[in-house]
Design goal:
about 250 residues, seven-stranded antiparallel beta sheet, 2 domains, rod-shaped, alpha+beta, two-stranded antiparallel ribbon, Type Iii Antifreeze Protein Isoform Hplc 12
Length: about 250
């Protein structure tokens, strides 16, 4: 073997050694990354925005795979975890869904029943009524006076139900009134006892207008019976809750 061949053999050996060293380095880097990252696991992120207290469905989620060590313990990892669950607050597309973002859908208590009422979109609390919320329902009536004439009639606002729980809020729907005029209304389902269900039904059937007032969390006090009616006549005389029949007794 001449000198030229020896040099070639030496270069070949050196090249092989360098290649083996590079390969070993790559393996070491991969092992180091795997040791830091660990195995991968499946979680779910939102594929669209979800409104507060909207019920979650599988088609609103997409499966993602990421290192297990980067998935929070509260992350939703199985679709069964969203069954009968609603969003606690607004959820944004791309967010990793976690159990503290959802809660159980409100259920009926003993003695309650569900009753759905069509509420005019302009008289409800637009966009702020949600399942689980508490509301007060007010109804405005025209009341005939003692003489039964229109001249002796007056307007009264009555608190029909106090702290009624909202079970479900439907989609905005077009409805026709008695004069074939088209308006927009939202079906809202309440959880009520028998008496309150009758009051709500009466208000929907006979009131000139029904309005909802959202009760602030922590402010669920019962309104006293003597403060549940209002008349402008009584207000002008210093007692807004007085019955005009007692203020102006029949002759």
């Amino acid at each position: 073997m001449n000198a030229r061949q020896r040099r070639g053999l030496v270069l070949l050996v050196v090249s092989v050694l360098l290649a083996l060293a590079a390969f070993a380095g790559v393996i070491a880097v991969i092992d180091d990354v795997e040791s830091k990252v660990g195995p991968e696991a499946t979680a779910y992120e939102l594929s669209e925005d979800v409104e507060p207290y909207e019920e979650l469905t599988p088609d609103q989620l997409r499966k993602v795979t990421m290192p297990e060590r980067y998935i929070p313990r509260s992350a939703v990892t199985e679709l069964g975890q969203i069954e009968d669950q609603v969003a606690v607050g607004p959820l944004r597309e791309g967010s990793l869904l976690q159990t503290d973002m959802i809660t159980d859908r409100p259920e009926l208590d003993a003695g309650q029943q569900e009753i759905a009422v069509m509420i005019d979109a302009s008289t409800g609390v637009a966009g702020k009524i949600y399942p689980g919320a508490l509301i007060n329902m007010y109804a405005a009536f025209e009341v005939q006076g003692s003489s039964g004439t229109e001249e002796n009639s007056f307007e009264m606002v009555r608190l029909m139900v106090n702290n009624a729980e909202v079970i479900e809020v439907g989609d905005l729907t077009e409805v026709e009134d008695d004069e074939d005029n088209t308006t927009e209304a939202v079906p809202i389902t309440f959880a009520l006892d028998n008496e309150d269900a009758q009051r709500v039904t009466f208000a929907e059937a006979f009131a000139e207008e029904v309005r909802l007032a959202l009760v602030a969390p922590g402010d669920e006090e019962e309104v006293p019976d003597e403060e549940r009616s209002y008349t402008i006549i009584g207000d002008s005389l210093g007692d807004p809750h007085a019955d005009p029949g007692t203020l102006f007794p029949p002759e």
